[in-house]
Write a structure and sequence with these properties.
The protein is of the alpha+beta class and 400 residues long. 38% of the residues lie in helices and 18% in strands.
Amino acid sequence: MTTLPRPTTTLTADDARRIALRAQGFLGAPDRRAGVRGVLRHLGAVQLDTISVLARSHELIPYARLGAVGRATVESAYWKPASTGGAPARPHAFEYWSHAACILPVEEWPHFAFRRRAYRGRPHWNHQLPDGAYDQVIKQLRTEGPLTATELGGAKKTSDWWDWSGTKVAVERALMYGEVVCVERRGWKRVYDLAERAIPGALLHDELDDAECTRRLVRLAGESLGVGTRADIADYHRLKGEQVDAVIADSGLVPVEVEGWGKPAWADPVALATPPRGRHRTTLLSPFDSLIWERARTERIFGFTHRLEAYVPKPKRVYGYFAMPVLAGGLLVGRVDPAREGSTLVARQVTLDGPKAVPAVAQALVEAATWVNCTDVRVERVDAPELREPLTRELAGLLG
C-alpha cells in the first residue's frame, strides 16, 4: 500500500465549504466571457437527465452560475461545432459516461480511453447484439451521418422504455466502445457520428494508459471539488476507490485535514493559494448539480439532507417530485418543488430554514420565473404555515 504524506494544512469546515463553493462557480464573480463553455470546462462534467420541470438539468447548471443566460444559448454553447482556419467544424463537447450520462469537454476525450477499453472487454450486456447490426450502423453513419437512432432505423421494438431495437443496441454499443460519439441532443434524442469524423485527430489518437487516464480524472475531480475525501473524488467521474488510491499521490492534489470531516481529504493546491472570497450566488439548484449530487458530501459540507424524490412513490415524498435546493449566502436554506402553468411558476411545496430564508427563496423564485419567461409566481404550500404570508409578500414586492 502506498504511504501518503501527512497533511500539513488544516482547514475549518467553513474553509472547506467556501473552497467547494468557489471551485463549483458559486462564490466570486462568474466568468461571463467564457460563458457556458467556460462552466463546462470548469466543472469537467455536466450531468444530463430526462426530467424537465423548469428546464432540463444541463440547462439549469450554467443558469445557476451565470444567471439568466438564454436557453438557446446554452444548447448552442454545448453542441454547435466550431470551425477555425478552414478546418472541418468540430464539437466543443461530447456525451459519455462520467458521473452518469454527462456532457464533457471534447479535450477530455483521451482521458476516458480506460472506460472505453473496459466496455470493450465487458463479457455481459443487458441487450443482445443481432448479427450484422453493428457493421450496418457503422456503414450507415459513414455514408449518411450524423444520425439519430430513429434515422438509423428505429430506436425501439415496442413502446417499452428498454425494449431497444437491434439498431439502437448496436449504436449504443459503438458509443460505449468509442467508435461512435454523441455530438448533440436533438429533441432529447442522441445524434450519433463516427468518432473519426467528430473528434479532432490529435485527441482521437491520443490513447493513454489506464493510470494516465485515472490520474487526470482524479486531478480534474479535485479541481472541480476544491477539496474532497477519497469517496468524493472517486464519485465525481465514478471511479473505483482503488483506482483513486493508485494515482492520488502523484495526481497533483495535496493532502489536507478538514475539521469535523473525520476522513482523509485532498485539495487542489490552487484552491489553497488564496482565500475564497466574493459574492455568493442566490439560486435554485438542479438536484443533478455537481455541487450536491453526492448525498454524503452534501450532508458533510452543508448539513443538508438532499434526495431526489421523482422516483419515490408520491405518497412517500417528503419535499416533492423535483425539489430544488435553494443556495444563498453559501448555505442551503430551503427547497422548492416547482412546476409551470402557462406564464406562472408554481411553487408546489416550499421548505424554509426559518424566517431568515424568506428573502433568498423569494429572490431565487423570481429570478427562475424570469428566466423561463413566467410573469407570476404562485405558492401552493409552505411547510411552515406561518412563513407563507411573509413569502408571498416578499414575492409581491419583487414582482412589482
